Structures are given as C-alpha cells and as structure tokens.
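From the pipeline queue, job 12 of 40. The input is one protein chain; the requested action is below.

Action: predict structure.
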Amino acid sequence: MDMVRNVFETNFFGTVRMMRTVIPHMKARMEGHVVNLSGTAGLIGHPFMEYYTASKFAVEGFSEAMAPILEKFNIK
C-alpha cells in the first residue's frame, strides 16, 4: 500500500496541488493554460502497471472535469 500511495501522491495529488497553486493567479489574470500529462496510461490500462495506470486515469479524469469549470476564466 505504501507504493500505491507514493504513486498517487506524485502523479495525482501532485497535479492537484500544482493546479491549486497556479489557478488562482490565472483566474486573476483571466487567462492561462494548464497542461497535464497522462499519456496512453491515462487512456488504456497497462498490464503490470496497474497502480501507475490508475493514477494516470485519475489525472485524466480530473483534468477533463476541470476543463469546463476553468473555461469561464479563459483558462485552457
């Protein structure tokens, strides 16, 4: 479980923390771009990489869910 937590801590929670840090500045300027990388691991399950793949699916889902919310602030 420690390994699983470490993978999610880096890939998912690190992404969330980064976005929470920069988005308020982008909102204040009413512009910006957020680029989150998930690669094919965020779209297709890879055998023997199940925890890494799950963390990248989480990044992909979070990014997709945030896109329409940020759009009204001209953040792409």
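Job complete. The chain has one domain: 2-71.
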